User: Fold this.
Amino acid sequence: MRKHRGFTLIELLVVIAVIALLMAILMPALSRARSQARNVACRALLKQWGPIWYMYCNDNNGYFCSGNMPDISWARGEWVVALRTQYETRSEILRCPMAVKRLPSGENHGGPFNSYVMGGGGIGDMREEASFGQNCWLFNPPAGITKIQNRPCEWNWRTMNVRQAGEIPVFADTMWRGGGPTINGAKGDPPLFNGQWVDAGSEMKHFCIDRHNAFTNHLFLDWSVRAVGLKELWTLKWHKTFDVRGPWTKAGGATTADWPEWIRRFKDY
Assistant:
């Protein structure tokens, strides 16, 4: 009668070692695949926002919201109230798949991989969680309003019917409700580390986050969606007078060494 021979201890150890080696090789690849899938899903969500913004403007003679809505003291997030009727049954589109949970510390602001929370006010005093935010140079304020959160309103785009639409960011990955640089200084400097939170007024820091492997996703005023390199943020046409050849660009003389250490390895623009 033939006897069945079992595995020896050495053979079992070899099999375990091979499995461990394969897992070590495959896990990074699987992690990259998950990140890439979430990146694609993020852009798909922003494409859904294009018609939402377009329909709002189309219903308001081509203009964006005012930045001065009654009972809303946080203009950076006014969009969440103005557009609510368009997304209220699909609140999941407020959050990039890479940033769906709040910070463990419970802070209101978000991070590269965390959502933020809206303020109270507006319809039903709702406090949505989100991880996309608006370019705050879009507002169309009423006559007599010359500044919104210290931004000169004369620089605002106001309407969707403008030239350079493909260079003007509307909505993007962020860790706060909205923002957009003025000139240089507090609102326009890059963060010292990924996810640095200073305050609500340090607005370029809201958008300069490494959420998608050196990129963030943006919806532009021609309703296109694309990935934007982190250093490329300073070359976008945020407002009418924004210098796209400013000191944080190659054209303005910036070198790799000028950037905070964490961002130096990324592509220069």
